[in-house]
Amino acid sequence: MPEKMLHELTATEIVSRITAGKTTAEAVARDCLDYIAQREPAVQAWQFLDLELVLQQARALDRGTTRGPLQGVPVGIKDIIDTADMPTEYGTPIHAGHRPHMDAACVALTRRAGGLIMGKTVTTEFANRHPGKTMHPMDPARTPGGSSSGSAAAVGDRMIPLAVGTQTTGSTIRPAAYNGCFGYRPTWGDLRLAGVMEAAGSLDTLGLIARSVDDIALYRNVLAGVPTQALSVEPCKPPRVGVCRTQFWNDTDAATKTAIESCAAAMAKAGAKVTDLTLLASFEPIEEIHQRISSFEFARNRAWEINHHYERISKTLRENRLKHGLAYSFEQYCEARAQGEKLRLQLDDIFRDYDVILTPSAPGEPPVGLNATGSAAFSSIWTVGHNPSMTLPLFSGPNKLPIGVQLITRRDTDRYLFEVSRWTCALYGR
Amino acid sequence: MPEKMLHELTATEIVSRITAGKTTAEAVARDCLDYIAQREPAVQAWQFLDLELVLQQARALDRGTTRGPLQGVPVGIKDIIDTADMPTEYGTPIHAGHRPHMDAACVALTRRAGGLIMGKTVTTEFANRHPGKTMHPMDPARTPGGSSSGSAAAVGDRMIPLAVGTQTTGSTIRPAAYNGCFGYRPTWGDLRLAGVMEAAGSLDTLGLIARSVDDIALYRNVLAGVPTQALSVEPCKPPRVGVCRTQFWNDTDAATKTAIESCAAAMAKAGAKVTDLTLLASFEPIEEIHQRISSFEFARNRAWEINHHYERISKTLRENRLKHGLAYSFEQYCEARAQGEKLRLQLDDIFRDYDVILTPSAPGEPPVGLNATGSAAFSSIWTVGHNPSMTLPLFSGPNKLPIGVQLITRRDTDRYLFEVSRWTCALYGR
């Protein structure tokens, strides 16, 4: 096997080589930049990328006397997250050229850990549905998913090892799955959002995209602002798995159904107690609950843009989320929020009987067409539930495009999610 | 009784006079400006106030063809809330002169309703404990309370009828009480925080400060982005009141104890079922729970300032909240957050037996000394509980300074809180 190029390494591998003196932040950055130069015309993952700024950061890191847990790792930052040295445009011409005066908390924590902010990755308009310019790296006729489109495409295409996205519905899990990445949505509330555009605060989280579970675990501790701590060397014991097909099962394609059934079978074979999990009827209106909460909040958060730039908001956004959001009454919003809290407690109960839920990450391979970003249906339940979830890039479909499977655990058990993700990957030699 | 000056009117009165053509936004603004010019040297409520900008806004409102629900009402905005046409400095020299490129959602919603953004009111450093320059309007040797110091002093001194603050512990209730205002902390999550500096997202809310319950109800609907709707004309029926002295009762002064006992007696006399409410032992560690959640989140949200300007952060902040926040482990934080959620559900249960809780707003009159902002102990329980609360300016102490009483209702019953507040005020002819 030929040695991997630097841009193909995981974050963990980069840190280990740099701290051992085998390479430098500058060499890694240059290799990523070279590869990006070659691939960017076909992928369009970057909203902002300044070679000189990248190299300046890399040299400063190499000159520095400390070595952080993310030393020299190039990280892509979704362009709804503030950066003091790069524009932040929220995916809309309304904010073209806007340069924040300070870094978002997650960016500052990344820099403190020795991470190199590579650039700003393309987001859909206001992290909603109207797509940006990014194309799927493996097929330019297909969507890379959204709203963290550029973050997922850049990591999937191996331009960078690590990226930050966000999730309000399925904006990390879906694009990560489409691009063959690991995608992680943390327990709601764990990672601070200061300096991140609020879409719908009741549901918003950061989302991390990487090419290994170890990288996700590493970066999550950095962003939580706590000491890094490697995952346990011992594999976790075989879990109690609930296979949850959900009411969206009939909308999935054959390859996705096969992926879930085969993953469940592999888990059972490895000693897991695998049973079917059918959710209570209270979960049936999940899409309406999610829509009410997210649209009501989103429409109010965009008050300034509505006041001053309504005509520059996309028709997609105006006629869907904004229109719905402005039409709901406060009582309808509160009712949905209360229902969401009830579902959250019901999920806590479910996790007395199950260690982990297995469900699709998306209904199938990334769909053809660049005017939409695919369905987030398979994330709506866990997003409202505030649960941590992870998509694992273990399968592919009839077009040789990635198909992910999604694992979900109880709120506040994110490290266990990492361990059971690693256990599952090991079944596939990953 | 001499007719009130324009700056002494409530928001509701101003809107009614302007829409009836009896006065203009400009006349109201000019009267407020005149009064501010006279009083500001002694109070120092304003971080930013530009006469010309105020008059421009007023004339534009008067020229406009629409009349909004806050038509021509001068509003003060706490200086941790972004404004596109005024600096926003977060109470720290680190951000001196910073001018955001857009309005926070609450500011944009205020303008949309015809409100006039008067200026930026003084906040403590990062809405924490290190005081700003504001003095108590009735006694310059005393604190106006914090962190919404300028908002409360400006409304209490009748410079303006309405102001926005925020609350992460007791940052609205306490200064509102000290300044003889109505202060309202909404159900957590009701009013959007886009464009508001995040202190600790799990606890942060906006807070409204006014001189009447009707004004609070009016402005709250504006900020929720829903149609305004007057409170019911019928008084609400006498409530079931729980008098909750809490574990902080021994720290209150005699006047505060008398205020609570006398308010409870007046309520009972008016037909309320008034009983003592003793909280479960699970509420005893409330200050530790609050401290862990707020400090852990606050310290991570300030990552950029810590990276770049650590030495310009006050010693008070560095050696208290930041030091504690950085020392807690993630597990300690999660444990506190889980305890907080449990208390929230226990409070829901308590509100099966009680319609409203009566408790002090602060331990006494505003204390002497400008190097601290008073105790927030009487807000910690309801802040962690996510409950709506209101301080009513019904009493005064031995120094003729204001003493408030605080009402708290179940989450999501903010309109009922307004009605029961009005019912209580009516017992005192307010």
Number of strands of chain A: 11
The oligomeric state is homodimer
The name of the CATH superfamily of the largest domain in chain A reads Amidase signature (AS) domain
What's the pLDDT, averaged over the residues of chain A?
97
Distance between the terminal alpha carbons of chain A, to the nearest Å? 16 Å
Spatial shape of chain A: globular
Beta content of chain A comes to 5-15%
Q: Give the CATH topology of the largest domain in chain A.
A: Amidase signature (AS) enzymes
Calculate Rg of chain A over CA atoms. 20 Å
Strand order of the largest sheet of chain A: 1-3-2-4-6-5-10-11-9-7-8
Specify the CATH class of the largest domain in chain A. Alpha Beta
Give the topology string of chain A: H per helix, E per strand: HHEHEHEHEHEEHEHEHHHHEHEEH
Largest interface: A-B, 43 and 44 residues
Q: Quickly give the structural class of chain A.
A: alpha/beta
The percent range for helix content of chain A is: 40-55%
In a nutshell, what does this entry contain?
By secondary structure, chain A is of the alpha/beta class.
Report what the structure shows.
- Two copies of one chain form a homodimer.
- The first copy, chain A, is an alpha/beta fold.
- Chain A has two domains: 6-224, Amidase signature (AS) enzymes (Alpha-Beta Complex), CATH 3.90.1300.10; 240-284 and 334-427.
- Chain A is built from 14 helices and eleven strands.
- In chain A, α4 (105-112) crosses α7 (213-224).
- The first copy, chain A, starts with 10 loop residues before the first helix and ends with a helix.
- The interface between A and B is large, with 43 and 44 residues.
